[in-house]
Design a protein that fits this description.
Helix content is 36%, strand content 21%. Strand 1 and strand 2 form a beta hairpin. The chain starts with a helix and ends with a helix. The protein binds ligand BES and manganese (II) ion (2 copies). One manganese (II) ion (MN) binds next to loops.
């Protein structure tokens, strides 16, 4: 163990140099233009797994982007860990707001700037390098390990559920490990025990075959932009409460214990506002900010379009309008059920003078796990050793669809050991990975393998 930890510390520079190569591949999953890059990225990872010393490696094509798999099963009698990560990244627009190019990784003041640096390539790399360190220094790992890295997380993991369903024997493990979440605060290691789910929709509203002269037709027909605005206003009241009938029925309230733990976390609303340039917070009445982010469902309009937005003026009634609407879900809401409730409600609130088409784009289930599970406790001890600080247990506002799938199909718990930060700029310009966190993360993961080895009796 000591030797492995020394090796990890000594090799940090090499790790980062290699990571730069991984980060240079523009693996943007939502853009068909990057399809070849996605394949390159999957191949790059597979080669890496081979170099590290995985006994089996394989690329599985899907209807979308390929899945990379590897296994090292040289520790008979020891538990098996399934490491999950994603090699796809978010789009990079608006490009002009980046200080360095998103796919030309640049180190500046202890951070590496690049799209994917923290979400999730950097954190995948951190785990792979620990596996490498064990195999290089000891010729073995204290556990068996399977690695599953997908290329469609940022677009809702659409092909993953079927894949996991049809490869249950191959993926059979005792627990999963994921590094794809932010820490609560710099220097405070955090273990996620809950994730929100997601249901994502597109609404298309049509009024007429084509745009109409607003003089000849204004007054006789509805304006689709107005119809859309009316629909959107009927989705939530001024108190931030979602108006879809039945929407809250399956929401599990926070326990008193959770509320107490939450109130102990170092959270300051004023600093939060200042950090992100928000004049005043807004959210569902009757709940504190962290409760709203972690334990309450939300409904957002991600974007909308319709009609004339060019220079100057044009007198027109647009033929159509569009909105992208998503809901973050909490245990025990189900995305498919919520979609049904939404569709029913839309039928009631859509003015009869337009045609509405609702499309379910993607989604994922919420997840929560008891924190006294041996795997979660092993993660806690590992973070304590890696950071010298006792970690906090937090819920997360974001979504990682695979976690609920793993619980449901493989019946395994997941330890969320992420080392992102609130200011990592994930999904935004100037995404960055803190190199101190990368280092402490590698050391923590090395300890986790060791702690996990003795935490599960086989
Ligand atoms: N790494 C994030 C998930 C995350 C973000 C967890 C913040 C906790 C806090 C992941 O890559 C992500 O962005 N997921 C998407 C999933 C969606 C497309 C189904 C998300 O949350 O929007
Ligand atoms: Mn991610
Ligand atoms: Mn993401």
């Amino acid at each position: 163990m000591e030797e492995t930890l020394t090796y990890i510390s000594k090799n940090q520079n090499r790790y980062i140099n290699e990571l730069k190569e991984f980060l240079s591949i523009p693996s943007i999953s939502n853009d068909p233009k990057n399809q070849a890059d996605m394949r390159d990225c999957a191949n790059f990872l597979r080669d890496q797994l081979k170099d590290i010393g995985f006994q089996q490696t394989k690329i599985f094509p899907t209807n979308g982007h390929p899945i990379v798999f590897g296994e090292w099963l040289g520790a008979p009698g020891k538990p098996t860990l399934l490491f999950y990560g994603h090699y796809d990244v978010q789009p990079v627009e608006p490009l002009e707001l980046w200080t360095s190019k998103p796919f030309e990784p640049t180190i500046h003041q202890g951070e590496i700037y690049a799209r994917g640096s923290v979400d999730d390539k950097g954190q995948v790399w951190m785990n792979l390098k620990v596996i490498e360190a064990y195999l290089k220094t000891q010729g073995s790992l204290p556990i068996n390990i399977k690695v599953l890295i997908e290329g469609e997380e940022e677009v809702g993991s659409t092909n993953l559920e079927n894949f996991i369903y049809s490869h249950q024997e191959m993926l059979k493990s005792d627990a999963a490990l994921i590094s794809d979440t932010p820490m609560f605060k710099h220097g405070l290691p955090s273990i996620g025990y809950g994730l929100r789910g997601l249901a994502y929709f597109q609404l298309d509203i049509t009024g007429s075959y084509h745009d109409l002269h607003s003089g000849s037709f204004g007054g006789a027909v509805i304006n689709p932009n107005f119809a859309l605005a009316q629909i959107i206003l009927s989705l939530k009241d001024e108190k931030g409460r979602i108006l879809i009938p039945g929407f809250y029925d399956d929401v599990v309230p926070l326990t008193t214990k959770e509320k107490i733990e939450m109130s102990k976390l170092p959270f300051n609303e004023k600093t939060f506002c200042k950090d992100f340039g928000v004049p005043k917070l807004f959210g569902e009445q009757g709940y504190k900010t962290l409760e709203r982010i972690w334990a309450r469902p939300t409904l957002e309009v991600n974007g909308m379009s319709g009609g004339f937005i060019g220079e100057g003026s044009k007198t027109v009634i647009p033929a159509c309008a569009m909105a992208k609407i998503s809901m973050r879900l909490v245990p025990n809401q189900d995305p498919k059920h919520v979609a049904q409730l939404f569709e029913n409600y839309l039928q009631n609130i859509t003015p009869p003078s337009v045609t509405l088409k609702m499309k379910y784009l993607n989604g994922g289930k919420p997840w929560i796990t008891p924190i006294d599970h041996p795997t979660i406790q092993a993660a806690s001890r590992a973070f304590k050793k890696g950071y010298g600080t006792t970690p906090v247990f937090i819920r997360e506002g974001g979504s990682i669809p695979v976690v609920a799938i793993l619980a449901e199909i493989l019946d395994i718990p997941t330890a969320l050991m992420g080392i992102g930060l609130p200011d990592s700029n994930t999904h935004a310009p100037n995404e960055k990975l803190n190199l101190t966190n990368f280092k402490n993360g590698t050391i923590s993961i090395a300890h986790f393998f060791d702690e996990f080895s003795s935490s599960v009796s086989n």
